[in-house]
């Protein structure tokens, strides 16, 4: 619709909900509303204007890696309609940080790019990069995107890059985040750095995450990424046994539990972006009530369409 004359204005008129009640100030950034597009949908920074016109308050681009990579062989995404879920094993397919940075820079120069849309950069390592050298990949992405994004997300929780989740262990994660934080403050200008975590962490590991956030001084947490669990699925064995991360309705309860645990155990010491299984306005409210400052959509956006964004924002206004 945005590519036709007047299409962008029509999209905004149909989908966009505006109200001072929706505005949020989180980790030093002003969001026009608390509903964002999660990473993985716009991997290469191609749809930011369109997503803003549909009513998203922020868009997270990526996951972006230093070098282009094709991701895993197709088929690599599977719909589970009986469960309201998706299984994906995309594998960080993207055009590489140079292409994405150039696109974001060009978008920032447009009329749409100079408006209020907050853009996040979700960064990861290339598949061929060993974990011992992973920090250098994150630094490359961080440096290249620094001038064109508003916040960063360190993705060490995707189940689709071999060995990546090992970087969630305390020692390597502290090293990675401390390195990025030193890089972050060197020019007197800093960007909020968030950590995206898996829903499959134990309470002990979540306690470590709280300690890591406090010790490194990063801005907050995104809870959660996809799960490797298949518990309680109604879909066929053929579908549910596909390898990859599960998102959507089956993830909703666990992601909310993680949000609640982090918020409660940390005494609300840092902001949390809640994501995982938001298919209705009530799902979003549940995560906000659990302690999330903002929410993100992915699978729910695919199943429910853009009207879901407006329904959530209208529900928040009515509270």
From TrEMBL:
The gene is pyrD. GO terms for biological process: 'de novo' pyrimidine nucleobase biosynthetic process; 'de novo' UMP biosynthetic process. Its EC number is 1.3.5.2. Monomer. The keyword Cell wall biogenesis/degradation does not apply. HAMAP family: DHO_dh_type2. It comes from Mucilaginibacter xinganensis. Catalyzes the conversion of dihydroorotate to orotate with quinone as electron acceptor. Its cofactor is FMN. This is Dihydroorotate dehydrogenase (quinone). Residues 22-317 form the Dihydroorotate dehydrogenase catalytic domain.
């Amino acid at each position: 619709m945005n590519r036709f004359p007047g299409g962008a204005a029509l999209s905004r008129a149909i989908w966009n909900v505006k109200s001072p009640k929706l505005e949020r100030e989180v980790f030093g950034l002003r969001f026009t509303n608390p509903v964002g597009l999660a990473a993985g949908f716009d991997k290469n920074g191609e749809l930011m204007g369109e997503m803003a016109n549909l009513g998203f308050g922020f868009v997270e681009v990526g996951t972006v890696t230093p070098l282009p990579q094709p991701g895993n062989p197709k088929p690599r995404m599977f719909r589970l309609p009986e469960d309201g879920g998706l299984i994906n094993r995309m594998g960080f397919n993207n055009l590489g940080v140079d292409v994405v940075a150039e696109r974001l820079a060009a978008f920032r120069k447009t009329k749409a790019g100079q408006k209020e849309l907050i853009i996040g950069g979700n960064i990861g390592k290339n598949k061929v990069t060993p974990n011992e050298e992973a920090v250098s990949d994150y630094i490359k992405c961080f440096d290249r995107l620094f001038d064109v994004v508003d916040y960063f997300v360190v993705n060490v929780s995707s189940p689709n890059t071999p060995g990546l989740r090992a970087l969630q262990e305390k020692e390597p994660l502290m090293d990675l985040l401390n390195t990025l934080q030193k890089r972050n403050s060197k020019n007197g200008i800093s960007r909020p750095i968030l950590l995206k975590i898996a829903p499959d962490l134990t309470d002990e590991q979540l306690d470590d995450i709280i300690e890591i956030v406090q010790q490194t001084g990063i801005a907050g947490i995104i809870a959660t990424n996809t799960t490797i669990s298949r518990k309680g699925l109604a879909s066929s064995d053929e579908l549910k046994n596909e390898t990859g991360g599960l998102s959507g309705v089956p993830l909703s309860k666990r992601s909310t539990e993680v949000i609640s645990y982090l918020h409660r155990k940390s005494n609300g010491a840092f902001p949390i972006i809640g994501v995982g299984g938001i298919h209705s306005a009530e799902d979003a409210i549940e995560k906000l009530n659990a302690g999330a400052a903002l929410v993100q959509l992915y699978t729910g956006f695919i199943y429910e369409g853009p009207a879901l964004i407006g329904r959530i924002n209208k529900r928040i206004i009515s509270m």
